[in-house]
Amino acid sequence: MKRRKELTATATVGEQVDTLVGRVALVTGAARGQGRAIAHRLVRAGAAVIAGDVLSEVDALADELPGRALAARLDVTDASSWRRLIEQGVERFGRLDILVNNAGVLRRVELANETGEEFERIWRVNCLGAFFGMQAARPHLRASGHGTVVNTLSTAALTAWTMHGAYASSKWALRGLTRVAALELAADGIRVNAVVPGPVLTPMVIRDDDPDAATRLARTPLGRAGLPGDIAEVVLFLVSDASSFLTGAEVVVDGGQTVGTILAAPRRD
């Protein structure tokens, strides 16, 4: 039970209200974990949210955020699914100002045992999905006058992990796509940034077949794993006017994990 509570906890430090009043955000992978926390955080800041996910659990957001959320199924690998959801959202709320490409899947397997089908599936969700989203949302974000995009990377996009060939390479690709989009969409007044989560307690990484995951993920310089709310706070900053001169940036939220190695102090006899 304690572990489940950790997965749904959100940060309250730096609480901001009304910073996004009148704006509409589309959040993918919103059924649980980081996506759900982001949806709740943006609504608390005044936004309305279009919540998309392939999981039926996304439907609960409409009840959790009455009148402020449209929850629907979204297959990010299908361009027509994107068009349908955006049409529904704009019809409901009248506009689209923010896109948060948070949907992603994790796969752990050695290269020798990987298959072409599974490798491509990971890429389609983690990279192609964000491409389709930015392409479909662009006209509305341009019309917004303050359109913003946040793509969710991973510290796997800054380094390399064994047994994560498909996942790491897809996140590296999304990192490059984010930079290209930041350059190209700047002319439309659209800012494109990336949040780079490190070890975060979400259902994607905390699984019954890996009972030691929470303990392992807590081995950061700050002495704990991240919570979905930690990521949501950074996303709020990136989509708000507080970051109006920021584009093409990568904000790492990993408790210091990728900074370096803490060595034990030498013994003094």
Protein described:
This protein is α/β, with parallel strands linked by helices. It has one domain (16-197, 228-246): 3-Layer(aba) Sandwich (Rossmann fold), CATH 3.40.50.720. The protein has helices at 2-8, 33-44, 60-64, 79-93, 116-144, 165-185, 213-217, 228-239; strands spanning 24-28, 48-53, 69-73, 98-101, 148-152, 191-197, 250-253. It has a 7-stranded parallel β-sheet, sandwiched between helices. The protein is globular, with a radius of gyration of 18 Å.
Kindly report how far apart the N and C termini lie: 46 Å
* Rg measurement, Å: 18 Å
- Overall geometry comes to globular
**Strand residue percentage:** 5-15%
CATH architecture: 3-Layer(aba) Sandwich
Helix tally? Answer: 8
CATH class: Alpha Beta
Question: What features would you highlight for this structure?
Answer:
Rossmann fold; alpha/beta; 39% helix; 269 residues; globular; disordered N terminus; 13% strand; seven-stranded parallel sheet
Task: Give the arrangement of secondary structure elements.
Elements (H helix, E strand, L loop, with lengths): L1 H7 L15 E5 L4 H12 L3 E6 L6 H5 L4 E5 L5 H15 L4 E4 L14 H29 L3 E5 L12 H21 L5 E7 L15 H5 L10 H12 L10 E4 L16
Parallel strand pairs: 1-2, 1-4, 2-3, 4-5, 5-6, 6-7
In short:
By secondary structure, the protein is of the alpha/beta class. 39% of the residues lie in helices and 13% in strands.
